[in-house]
Design brief:
The chain has 2 domains: about 210 residues, Alpha/Beta hydrolase fold, catalytic domain (Rossmann fold, 3-Layer(aba) Sandwich), CATH 3.40.50.1820; about 50 residues, no CATH class. The protein is built from 10 helices and 10 strands. The strands form 2 sheets. The protein has a 6-stranded mixed β-sheet, with helices on both faces. It has a 3-stranded antiparallel β-sheet with strand order 6-8-7. The longest helix is centred in the middle third of the chain and has 14 residues.
Length: about 300
């Protein structure tokens, strides 16, 4: 199959052995199933990639093969309500504690006792919560542009677009324009090819050639009514004895330098990389980000 197709699924509804690149559906709570994509890499501790609030596993279609090339199988999981995962009829389930439980369910279904977690934004929040609840499942953590405290300006910006972006557009170019209007502040140097790729990962193409936003707009309603996350300082502190890499966008409005300083007081030994002229959140394939990730993984014993 073509791994560049973000929402191409196989017919199986069960976890089966991983091949070179394979899409699966994983049953979770509330009668839903999640989409997961696997990349075969080797016998070192596998890597579990978790995306941001309105994103999906397609965000890792460039990063995952690079990690697999280091000798690790990679699983990119899509949270409920996004991409090819099922949407939840109860929008109050769009919450990090539910995502934590879904991740643990998925790991059990796939016979994945532990993993190196790569979490972008919401995925980083979920990583902290998983480690607090089941520390034996997290071998190490790469946290992308989020911390145990969220800068209010970043939350305000995200709440301003989550669930409010135009859901249906006529073509990919219009989809790219919609995405650029929301995210242009985070990627000021990005070219048109970047925005078209971003749009392909965030919208899905319909049979008539139009495109539809690939997440449930009710996610925005849940963010407003339930909040972005529970208190995260204790979950973050639970990582202090684990290898941890924090990546920050140099112009991020969600993870400020002041928050990073507070994080160091709790977990003084984490690795750190800052990606110049990128906001929330780095794609993790930027040269500085990839160098940090590659070096971090190389230093792990397995």
């Amino acid at each position: 199959m073509n791994c560049a197709e973000p929402f191409a699924l196989n017919a199986s509804n069960s976890a089966a052995p991983v091949t070179a690149c394979e899409d699966k559906r994983i049953p979770v709570a509330n009668g839903l199933s999640l989409h997961a994509r696997f990349y075969e890499g080797g016998d070192k501790t596998p890597v579990l990639c978790l995306h941001g609030l309105t994103r999906n596993a397609a965000d890792f279609e460039e990063l995952a093969p690079k990690i697999a090339g280091t000798g690790r199988d990679v699983l990119a999981l899509t949270f409920r309500g996004r991409g090819a995962s099922d949407y939840d009829p109860d929008y109050l389930n769009y919450h990090p504690l539910q995502y934590r439980d879904d991740v643990l369910t998925a790991m059990d279904a796939l016979n994945l006792p532990e993993a190196v977690f790569v979490g972008t934004s919401l995925g980083g929040i979920t990583t902290m919560l998983v480690n607090e609840s089941a520390p034996e499942r997290v071998k190490a953590a790469i946290i992308n542009d989020v911390g145990p405290e969220l800068a209010p300006e970043g939350i305000a910006r995200i709440a301003g677009y989550a669930g409010k972006t135009k859901t249906d557009v006529s073509d990919l170019e219009e989809a790219a324009a919609e995405i650029r209007a929301v995210n242009g502040v985070a990627f000021p140097d990005a070219d048109e090819a970047f925005w078209l790729a971003f749009a392909r990962r965030t919208f899905r193409e319909n049979p008539d050639g139009s495109w539809t936003l690939a997440y449930d707009p009710n996610i925005g309603k849940a963010l407003t009514e339930v909040g972005a996350a529970p208190d995260l300082w204790a979950p973050f502190e639970s990582l202090k004895n684990k290898p941890t890499l924090i990546i920050r966008g140099g112009i991020s409005d969600l993870l400020s330098p002041e928050i990073v300083s507070k994080m160091r007081a709790v977990h003084p030994n984490f690795d750190y990389a800052e990606i110049a002229n990128v906001g929330h959140a780095p794609m993790l394939t930027e040269p500085a980000a990839w160098d940090a990730i590659e070096n971090f993984l190389k230093r792990m014993p397995k």
